[in-house]
Specification:
Layout lengths: L12 H13 L12 E6 L5 H12 L3 E6 L7 E2 L12 E2 H10 L3 E5 L7 H5 L2 H9 L4 E3 L7 H14 L6 E6 L9 H12 L3 E5 L8 H4 L3 E3 L2 H5 L4 E5 L23 H4 L6 E3 L12 H4 L6 H21 L2
Parallel strand pairs: 1-2, 1-5, 3-4, 5-6, 7-8, 7-10, 8-9, 10-11
Helix pairs in contact: 1-12, 2-12, 6-7, 6-12
The structure holds N-acetyl-L-norvaline and phosphoric acid mono(formamide)ester (CP).
The site of N-acetyl-L-norvaline has 7 residues, from helix 7.
Length: 317
């Protein structure tokens, strides 16, 4: 593996899960692999889990780590070519990327959808420039359209908790006051389509995701119906994708909040969320604190997913 931007690049899933299990059981077995190798983690957006878990994963592999928050202390970056740079951005991405490539062996990038241009977001304009101009392996720490390290951790978690070969997994939209990207739901749907699980997506009308990510999922607009018999409930908010509504919040209807009444419709389902989560918007206190909530082990598996992927990248150097 050189670049990692989608869970599709995990290749054979059984093998990927076996590699993840090995990493989880033997976290310090590959300390020599990363020796004198430097990881640069670059953040255009905030992070708690991705920052800490990826740094921990790299340290487990013996790597040195540099973390840069582009918006705190670095020069503000111009990202458009052809712009007369007489504004507040003193440096261009086209110099910054190859310069950063000189100081490291591997680059992780977080660059969310900006909701300014659907085309730029869905072409992964920022991430692709890192791949093209850095001269280094690049992995996504959530880009505009996907969050593959999160999805891989989610998949590892479902494998650990599932009680049947083919569990019913339901991804539900839930309300949120701000416009959030589609990266997490896109990526989760992409991952679920690679498995043999039964996969259902439920959301209000207007929140349809890109069909390329929905794949063979069943879309059910009645949330109660979708929840019936579910083994896993995966909650997430996203802003609208379709047409002129791209990036818009169409409603914040709290009838979609995941609560105990809805969880009672399921097959005693586990509750999952990538976090950070807004309580009593996305999910009630009661559900997230219940024994069926696995959000913390899910977050813990972010170290495992990052370390499994970083190890593959190091092996390719
Ligand atoms: C981000 C999102 O929804 O994509 C990050 C989630 C991992 N969430 C927020 O910005 C709240
Ligand atoms: N789940 C996740 O990626 O969290 P952070 O945004 O805190 O990194």
């Amino acid at each position: 593996m050189r670049h990692f931007t989608s869970v599709k690049q995990l290749g054979d899933l059984k093998e990927a899960f076996a590699k993840a299990r090995y990493v989880k059981e033997n976290p310090f077995a590959d300390q020599a692999l990363g020796r004198n190798r430097t990881l640069l983690m670059l953040f255009f957006n905030s992070s708690l889990r991705t920052r800490l878990s990826t740094q921990k994963a790299a340290m487990n592999l013996g790597m040195n780590v540099i973390v840069l928050d582009v918006n705190q202390g670095a020069w503000k970056l111009e990202t458009e070519r052809g712009v007369i740079m007489d504004g507040d951005r003193p440096e261009h991405l086209l110099e910054a990327i190859p310069v950063m490539g000189c100081y490291c062996d591997v680059i992780g990038v977080r660059s969310f959808a900006r909701f300014e241009s659907k085309e730029d977001d869905y072409n992964e304009k920022i991430l692709e420039q890192f791949i093209r101009y850095s001269g280094r392996p690049v992995f996504s720490m959530e880009a505009a359209t996907r969050h593959p390290l999160q999805t891989f951790a989610d998949m590892i978690t479902i494998e650990e908790y599932k009680k049947t070969e083919r569990p019913k997994v339901v991804m539900t939209w839930a309300p949120h006051p701000k416009a959030l990207p589609q990266a997490v739901p896109n990526s989760f749907a992409e991952g679920m389509n690679l498995t043999g699980y039964e996969f259902v997506i439920t959301h209000p009308e207007g929140y349809e995701l890109d069909p390329a990510f929905v794949g063979k999922a069943r879309v059910e607009y009645d949330q109660d119906k979708a929840f019936e018999g579910a083994d896993f409930i995966y909650a997430k908010n996203w802003a609208a994708y379709s047409g002129d509504n791209y990036g818009k919040v169409l409603n914040t209807d709290r009838r979609w909040t995941v609560d105990s009444r809805k969880m009672a419709l399921t097959n005693n389902a586990f509750f999952m969320h990538c976090l950070p989560v807004r309580r009593n918007m996305i999910v009630t206190d009661e559900v997230i604190e219940s024994p069926q909530s696995i959000v913390i082990p899910e977050a813990a598996n972010r170290v495992v997913s990052a370390q499994t992927v970083l190890k593959e990248i190091l092996l390719s150097l």
